[in-house]
Automatic annotation (TrEMBL):
GO annotations of cellular component type: core mediator complex; mediator complex
Organism of provenance: Arabidopsis thaliana x Arabidopsis arenosa
Any one GO molecular-function label of the UniProt entry: transcription coregulator activity
UniProt subcellular location: Nucleus
Quaternary structure, from the entry: Component of the Mediator complex.
Function: Component of the Mediator complex, a coactivator involved in the regulated transcription of nearly all RNA polymerase II-dependent genes. Mediator functions as a bridge to convey information from gene-specific regulatory proteins to the basal RNA polymerase II transcription machinery.
Keyword annotations: Activator, Nucleus, Transcription, Transcription regulation
Keyword Cell inner membrane listed: no
Protein name per UniProt: Mediator of RNA polymerase II transcription subunit 7
Annotated family: Belongs to the Mediator complex subunit 7 family.
GO terms of biological process kind: regulation of transcription by RNA polymerase II
Length: 190
């Protein structure tokens, strides 16, 4: 059984056989698709409309007013994201079975952040939404876990230094008490 190295050309190539002699002989390209279409199993639309968070099944974590203070809300969500990532690091250390809930909360915060950013810059919706990758999320979590480990190490060093300082104070107090006892015995003996 013989197999071809390359597949045969599509049958419509015959429509272009006279193209080199007469470029106008080729058929017109199909008109652009309007509305929705299916590509690789996914439904897409030609309208560049930012879907609401409710349509995406994500809870909205900022006010639903039309005049949202974007700067304030982005900062608030950023602080909340940092807090949740630190909590995730704690959960991964103490209760690893509960990480899925924290990941879901962090994902919701990320989606809210991206929705706010996308509503500020509608012409960049596709670029920004594609930047939310699993790899980027893992790198972000890893950096926070490293920062947490560094903070824990610094705090452990501070605790050790304070314990040494307390021991030093206790030792000096005992020495001072010994000097006072010696002084009382010396004074009582006279």
């Amino acid at each position: 059984m013989a197999t071809a190295t390359y597949p045969p050309p599509p049958p419509y190539y015959r429509l272009y056989k006279d193209y080199s002699e007469n470029p106008n002989s080729a058929p017109e390209p199909p008109p652009p698709i309007e509305g929705t279409y299916v590509c690789f199993g996914g439904n897409y639309t030609t309208e560049d409309v930012l879907p609401s968070l409710e349509e995406q099944g994500v809870p909205q974590l900022y006010p639903k007013d039309s005049n949202v203070d974007y700067k304030k809300e982005l900062r608030s969500l950023n602080r909340e994201l940092q807090l949740h990532i630190l909590e995730l690091a704690d959960v991964l250390v103490d209760r690893p079975s509960q990480y899925a809930k924290r990941i879901g909360e962090i994902s919701s915060i990320f989606k809210n952040l991206h929705h706010l950013l996308n509503s500020l810059r509608p012409h960049q919706v596709k670029k920004i939404s594609s930047s939310l990758t699993t790899y980027g999320f893992i790198v972000l979590i890893f950096s926070y876990v490293q920062a947490r480990a560094t903070l824990i190490h610094i705090m452990e060093l501070q605790i050790q230094q304070r314990k040494q300082a307390v021991e030093d104070i206790k030792r000096r107090r005992e020495e001072a008490q010994g000097f006072l006892k010696d002084a009382f015995f010396t004074l009582d003996g006279q």
